[in-house]
Every structure is written in C-alpha cells, then in structure tokens.
Design a protein that fits this description.
The structure holds 2 protein chains of 2 kinds. By secondary structure, chain A is of the alpha+beta class. Chain A contains 2 helices and 3 strands; from the N terminus they run ββαβα. Chain A has a single domain, classed as Ubiquitin-like (UB roll). Helix content of chain A is 18%, strand content 21%. Chain A has a 3-stranded antiparallel β-sheet. Helices cover 67% and strands 0% of the residues of chain B. Chain B has 10 helices and no strands. Chain B is globular, with a radius of gyration of 18 Å. The model of chain B has no long low-confidence stretch (mean pLDDT 96). The chains are: A alpha+beta, B mainly alpha.
Chain lengths: 96, 252
C-alpha cells in the first residue's frame, strides 16, 4: 500500500437523534480535532443526518486482528444457552 | 428616490455580493487542496447562491416589473451589478481565497446579525436563515486564518500577501449613500458604522492571533455602488450567464 500523503485519518461517529448512541459513518482527513469536526460536518451531515459529531484519531483505535477470530468468537457459536431465547418460560410466570 | 426604489437597490447590493462570491467559490470545485476542503468550499458556495436566490427573488418582487431571480442574475450586464468589488476578485492561491473569504464573511456576519432586526419582515426572515450559515462560514475561514497565518513561513507569507492585496477593497463595504439613509430611517437596514466597528474589532483580533500584520494600505478602491467594477467581473459574468443566454428559458 502506498504511503498516505494526506493528513491523519479521523473516524467519524454521528448521533442521529437525542438519546441514541453515536454510530460510525466513515472517516475524514484532518490536521487536528477542530478541522476533523468541521470536515465531518461538511462531508457527513449535509442532509440532516445528525445532531452530534464525535471524531476519533484512527490510530487511537485498538482493534482485534483477523487471526483472532477463531479464538475470540467461534467458541460462542456452540453455546446457544447464552441466549435468553434458549430457555423455555415456565407456565405461570408472569411479567417476564 | 422613494422607499421602494431604495429597497430594490439595497437588495441588489446584498444579493449580487452573495451571487458573485458564491460563483467565485464554485470555481474551486474539483480544485480544492484536499477532498474534504473541496466539499467544504462548495457547500459554502451553495449557501451563498441560495442566499442570493432568496434576496434576488425578493428584489424582483420589490421592483414589480416581473423580473424573477433568474432574470436578475443572468440578464443584467456588469454595469448593472451592485456586488462589492472584493467579491469579484479572482481566487488566486488558496491563501488568497481564505483572505478574501475572511474579510467578507466577517462583514456578512455582522451585517446579517443587524438585518435580523429589520422592520422588513421578509428581509429579517432571510437574514435569520442566512446568519446560521454565515456563522459556520466564518468559523471555517477563521480557522484557516490561524492555520495559514501561524503555519509555515510560506503559508504565512501567502496569506499576508492576500490580505495586503485585498485590503483596499474593504472600506467600500461600509460606504453609505442616499439608499442607506432612506432605509435606515425606516428601520429596514442598519447603520454600517455599527457594522464597521464590530468588523474592525474582530478582524484586528484574528489578524493578531494569526501572527499576521494589519495591512497598511490606505488606498480605497470603490465603485460598485455605481456599477463600476474591476475588469474581472465581465469574465465571470460571461461564464456564469452563458448557458442561460444561449438557451433562454429552457427547462432541464
């Protein structure tokens, strides 16, 4: 991959409505946080998509690696009892 | 001159300045220094053109001769345009564009803040909507003043050159004549001396913070109130008006 000659990458999160969580929508290049917020505003909120913006330097995000998939996530595949739907609700239980 | 004539003239001044600087900014489309900034500049250009559309539509109604915003934008020649000279100045390099936008955005910010209180309800309503957009424009261009002014030696020099070159066009922004006098008396438009005081204060603060020098030019270039423009406006209008004049009233 060629070296990115642009400013650092910032990941952009938008909150669509009050009370719900910020959702990842993409990223922008910017020299600092203020520029990142302005760029995110210009690139991702032109059509009233959000009411609040978070930007996070992409290099501040620690991520699991693809090789971890087996060890991390597959063991839960055969443990359906971890889902509440695994259990039958006994007759007579109210308010559940 | 009666109130109606004065209002038409004043609306042309406002609307033409927005239209012309909006067109100038649109020339950056596809040429911005980075993708995000390219999008930002074009958003701002669209805000200006939107503002011009509202104001020129209202100017046409005020005039009462059946001209709509398109007729006013596309079917007048340069001597009939009333935009401030600073708005028609070429983009130059990026620092030059930022200098122009900063000087004009600051002016527009304080002018429209006053226009929100206009006794003319339509003008006040347009000003309320536009002022929100202008607040963002000013924030954007002010950030760039700091970045370029307090950036590298080259960015500092380029921005300083831009300011020095454009400074002679700033006194014209605060010129008042019979039109202003009539409308100020009616409470429709503000006294530009008030706008000037706020503009000077803010511009000086930002220039100092950006480690730049206030230009020393005392020469004043004016003429837009009488439709006397720099040589740049004709070329701009030729490009902006070409399609409309070649295919009048076509729909697409």
């Amino acid at each position: 991959m060629s070296q990115d000659s642009q400013w650092p990458v910032w990941e952009v999160f938008l909150q669509a409505n009050p009370g719900i969580s910020h959702k990842h929508v993409g990223n922008v290049h910017a020299a600092d946080a203020e520029m990142a917020i302005q760029n995110a505003r210009d690139v991702y909120t032109r059509r009233s998509e959000g009411i609040s913006i978070w930007v996070v330097p992409a290099n501040a995000i620690a991520a699991s690696s693809p090789e971890d998939q087996g060890a991390f996530f597959e063991p839960s595949n055969d443990k359906p009892y971890r889902h509440p739907t695994f259990y039958k609700i006994p007759d007579g239980v109210k308010y559940l | 001159m009666n109130i109606q004539e004065a209002k038409f003239e004043y609306l042309l001044r406002l609307g033409d300045s927005s239209l012309i600087i909006g067109h100038r900014l649109s020339e950056w489309c596809g040429h911005g220094p980075i993708l995000e900034e390219d999008i930002a500049l074009i958003n701002i250009a669209l805000d200006f053109v939107g503002n011009a559309t509202s104001i020129l539509a209202y100017a046409g109604q005020t005039e009462g001769n059946g001209r709509d915003e398109d007729a006013l934008a596309y079917l007048r020649s340069e001597r009939e345009f009333r935009n401030l000279l600073i708005t028609e100045q070429p983009n130059g390099d990026y620092a030059n564009t930022i200098a122009r936008q900063f000087l004009f955005d600051t002016y527009m910010f304080f002018l429209y803040e006053e226009l929100k209180n206009s006794k003319d309800e339509t003008l006040a309503a347009i000003a309320v909507k536009s002022h929100k957009e202008i607040t963002y424009h000013l924030r954007h261009t002010t950030e760039w003043m700091y970045r370029l002014g307090d950036g590298t030696a080259e960015s500092h020099e380029r921005l300083q050159n831009g300011l020095n070159d454009l400074w002679m066009f700033t006194p014209e922004m605060f010129d008042m004549d019979e039109v202003d006098a009539l409308l100020i008396k009616e409470g429709i438009v503000p006294d530009l001396n008030k706008v000037k005081a706020s503009w000077e204060k803010r511009v000086k603060e930002v220039i100092a913070e950006a480690t730049l020098k206030l230009p020393e030019t005392t020469f004043k270039q004016k003429g837009s109130r009488e439709g006397k423009h720099s040589e740049h406006l004709g070329f701009l209008l030729a490009e902006m008006q070409y399609v409309h004049r070649s295919f009048p009233d076509s729909n697409w």
